What we know:
single chain, Phenylalanyl-tRNA Synthetase, Chain B, domain 1, 2 domains, three-stranded antiparallel β-sheet, 22% strand, binds S-adenosylmethionine, binds zinc ion
Amino acid sequence: MQKEGKAQFKVGGAFFREGSRIVRDLGVLAAAIYRQETGQLRVLDAMAGCGVRSLRYWLESGANWLLTNEGNPDRQTLLSANLQEAIAQKCCQITCENAHRLFFRCFDRKDYYDLVDVDCFGSASPYLSTVLWSVKTGGLIYLTSTDGRTGTGHLPQNSLANYGAYARSHPAAREQALRLIIGAIQQQAASQGRGIQPIFSFYSGETYRVMVRLLSQQQLTPENYGFLGYCHPCGEYQIVSWRKLGQCFCDRDNIPFTLTGPMWLGVLHDRDTLKKMQNLAREWHWYYQEKLLEIMAREADFPPYFYTLGEIGRRGKMDVPSRSRLISALQNHGDRATVTHLDPQAIKTDANLATCIEIARSLNSVTS
Ligand SMILES: C[S@@+](CC[C@H](N)C(=O)[O-])C[C@H]1O[C@@H](n2cnc3c(N)ncnc32)[C@H](O)[C@@H]1O
Ligand SMILES: [Zn+2]
């Protein structure tokens, strides 16, 4: 018997990764906040595996209905056993079919869900359009992508197919992979006259998770959906809008930026929701999660990239000061700066890379 949070379950032959607990914890917290705020929580767990997420949404987030689906019919007996209590209380139905079919059935029956969890293998892109048919306006969609190489620019042909965007490689490409997923679902929602709002975006162990809220109004704009430019010679980034596509040159090197996009350029997380999740984590004595949410809340509205300390050191040809000293020095200089959950050896800041190098160098000269 496996235990996670309040759930006890058997894994049997299902896919289950104990080390991914944190992504389930984040989902449980966001779902619990939704339940507190709306008074109900109907969950469609589209790719349930052994059913751990369904169980946790029910026991910890207070879900009042679970539609627990798993494409592999061999898991039906396992799911029925793991969820027997919820089934006995008439809070859960188990289905074994292709998630796409289920999403369209929800639409056909006008049976829309508060939270749809799509914990797929590989890319989430096949589900970005179909999942929208199953979600209530104002409801949440929780997506997984384990296809990191595509979003980080190692397979640009794939990213074109998956996201309708050309992805290039650079030091902040992890963040880009999250933003490509958000951008793609935003574009899908916009094509239906609807919008999305990122609730949180999370990178861990080469996997990417994005939770978004479905909005009734289209909110795609040239400001929140555009391009990220990177200059390989100097390492500087620039946001490039659609109108400036032909005119985006690095001032210093006078060469065109290498562009990735279109992708989501707005906030990475909804800070208000993160604060509520953080408070709940504290209440539940989930201290690691509380700390992580604090870091995520701080980084929410920074530019859509980060600088690694290694890059600052390599470009400045020097030893880099500690991350905390560099952040304090940038703040004293008048720039916003923070740690990021995306890389423990990186910072997010409004300052450009040249400023970071200059400030790191000045710290070194004070020390020596
Ligand atoms: C990553 S595992 C799910 C793990 C589980 N959610 C957890 O947190 O432990 C993905 C599951 O999705 C199922 N699956 C894959 N494609 C599917 C599809 N199109 N429709 C329904 N289920 C699918 C697989 O059989 C597999 O059990
Ligand atoms: Zn340059």
